[in-house]
Amino acid sequence: MKWLLVYLLFLNTVLYSQHVEKTDTFAFYTSSLYPEVHNNNYKDALQKAQKAILDAEAKGNIKEQSTQHYNLGKLYYDLNKYDDAIESLSKSSVLLKDLKPDAKQVATYYVLGLCYMAKENEDLAVLQFNKAKSVLNKIKGKDEADLLKLQNGLVYKAKDNLDLAQSVFASIIAKPDNPFLINTKVEALFQTGCIENQRNKNNLALNYLNKALELNETIDNLDQRSNILFALSTVYDKTLDKSTAYSYLKQHLNIKERISIRNNRRLGIDDYTKFKESERLKEIIQANNEIREQEKTNKFSKLISILAIALISILSLLSLSLYKNNIIRNQSNLSLLEKNNELEIAKDKAEKASKARSEFLSTVSHELRTPLNAINGIAHLLLQENPKKNQLDYLSSLKFSGDYLTKFINEILEINKIESHHVEVEQTTFNLKQLLLGIKNSLKELAIANSNNLILDIDEAIPDYLIGDPTKLSQIILNLINNALKFTKNGEIKLTANLDTLEDKKAKLYFEITDTGIGIPEDKLISVFDSFSQGSIEVNRKYGGTGLGLTIVKKLIKILGGKIKLTSIVGEGSTFSFKLEFEISEKPIELKPIKKINYDSKLENKRILVVEDNKINQMITRKMLQNKKIICEIIDNGEDAIETVRTTKYDLILMDVHLPGINGTVATENIRVFDKTTPIIALTAISLHENREMLLSFGMNEVITKPFVPEDFYTTIALHI
Fold it and tell me: Do 142 and 176 form a contact (C-beta atoms < 8 A)?
């Protein structure tokens, strides 16, 4: 009842008297503040608002200036001139900052939010609605909060968060009816009907839309009614009730025609252009009037008059220039604010896209390991069964392809780990000279295959023992030498390691890998470090490879604190170089002798439980174990595995990590409650978020990564049996 009286009082005030004191309510400020608006005479309303602004500026009345800038912005909003509306409303909000919070501030931020919603900039709209809500809390407004709640629901809907949007609309619909909330409630019913329509819940959609139409008929909101009728027509058309759909569509078109006639009466394009031009002319006229008034007061002498006129003219021009600069600055500030918000949003989207890409590649590489394990395992088993000579080549090719795909997947996972910051740098003592010599010996056969001479040149001044990450250093050098060997035939590859500087127990080393291979074109010297890049399509077809090796090298060198350099001449060869810093270790490495295990005799007649849900992997693992005379039992889920181990003694358990029901890590934790001794080895197609330390923390003794190398598979089992 209270809001009905306020609403009637407002209508009486607007239509019949502008001299009566204005009620400071949100309803008052969000309604049309000029009688001309009710007659669709926006031309006169705009002129009246502009005149009021000039009068307020002349009197220096800040509060009145903010009010009139708001009035002008609201008129622009009603005319769908959103950029002009944002400019005027922003001026009003700046003036309001130093004034006491009131309903006018709420209205200013609210209409600004509506402008940004109309421009489909939901993020800036939310910013304005939040400001309105903050002021509303200070002045303890209640019913007005539902308007802001409605806008939040519309933002959720625009961002396809339909569940959250629907919950907001439902809370508004549940409110008791009152005159101030009718428009809000109709809009909430309409938006809920649209959401149910999207979800193909036609009966629910019709229920909400009919309620919206019924309530809308009690108010004069043609735009809202047009939208409801069109939505009803769409839903009836989906239910194949063509007659009713056509009836609502016809009503929608009739109202659209009425709206068009109303809009044409409001303000034509020529009227708007003339108004904007008149604004500019009035400013100039006002400046000229000031000049003339100043001239009348300066009649003491001809010389003084001339000087005064010149001075006033200069000051006027400067004032006009400053005024225009101020407008440009305000516009620039608004533009910069929007751009900053857009950049923040773009940054968030880019980060999400990068994360999604990383997760996708990790998932793909993870899922490919299981079938690859089957391919490699079957190839190994067939090669063990004395195949015919004409089958041997096929099986060797199959094994080569499986190994190639495994290497490719490992490289993808390595890049994902680097880009996701999952890579940790070790700090262990190692002998660089022994490490480089070991790399050279491991690549001897590959060098001989292409008739290449592999040379190792190590500076004797390099300290014997260094502290760093030998694994990553080995990976870098292996990748670079492998690359050089692949693209060089009948040539020479040289690995040089020199001491660059030595101070404060730190040694900076210079590494260089030079080859006499095919070389790299000058325009490809940067792009060869990009993922999946190999210089050209012809090079890729001729030499093969994934194009990921140099990408990994560059990223690993950067992680270790260095930067790779490349020089190359086509037909003469390439040189890769980089510098890395290491701490000097005073004590040598304690090398443990590696015992060669005769696993055939050690594995015979051992009892092993295999927990694996994939039927093909079950078959392969069983066959590989039986080949070594191992007694093998298969279980395909974690729950049964726990119960079986509780009653049966096994020499070892092979536990797949990803199982139906409870996974392998949970099953291992449960087994360790009552069995601390039976070795459990994890079998996993390891993903981006898994690592050996994490899996061991659940009580596993070791990890075997799919697809596994048979020799490593047997050796690992023999070490833990």
Answer: no
